[in-house]
Amino acid sequence: MNDIVERFEVAFNQIHQHLKELNGYPKNDNFVELLQHSKLKHSVIRVYFDKLKQYAKLRNAIVHERIDEEYYIATPHTDVVEELERIKRTLDQPPKALDFATRPVLFFKSDTPLSHIIEAFHKHPVSQFPIYRDKHDFIGLLTNDCVVNWMSRTMDNGSVRIESVVAEDILDDAHPNVQFLKAERTVYDLEERFEDSLENNQKLKAVILTESGEPDDLPMGIVTTWDLIKVDRRNRDES
């Protein structure tokens, strides 16, 4: 077999295998259909979608339209093969979810005064803080929206008394959708969480990354839908 054709087929088949894995090994494993479905969930695939679709046409010409065993109606250029191999390496070693997380994570205890949390919202460019009881028992995500909503409900004659209010008091009325993920997992796993929540009509506010992937562990990073924009931007810059 022509060496350049062999390299192309090896890289293409390995990418095909990645697409099967990303889609849970469906019965219909047509490359283009897997590509189309993966594009909806994963930014890496979205970035390379057009190229991979064209490479699929080239692959069909190589495999199905060759004149004999050693004569191909189409042969890929070296730069095409090198690009396909580069895409394959990206899929082999996708970025870690932690690469796109906000770090370090500022969090508070359940008995932290609301005045202290409001001050923290003013000082730090974040819109939510995880709240824990003793021994890192996660009880909720306190967002700036939660604070505003609580204030609007408790306002009396244009003023709000917050002297004795603590974080847990506000969490009683607000439960933003939060999920947890092992910090070592990939950006694919991260994107999957947000996509699944969208399909289930459940707005996922954030994914908190911990060493164990469990809620009762210290937060190592936090990812919001805004952070997912960084995923697309980085992948496009590297494409």
Automatic annotation (TrEMBL):
Signal peptide: none annotated. InterPro entries: CBS_dom, CBS_dom_sf. The keyword Nucleus does not apply. PROSITE patterns: CBS (PS51371). Keywords: CBS domain. Residues 101-157, 174-238 form the CBS domain. This is CBS domain-containing protein. It comes from Halobacillus locisalis.
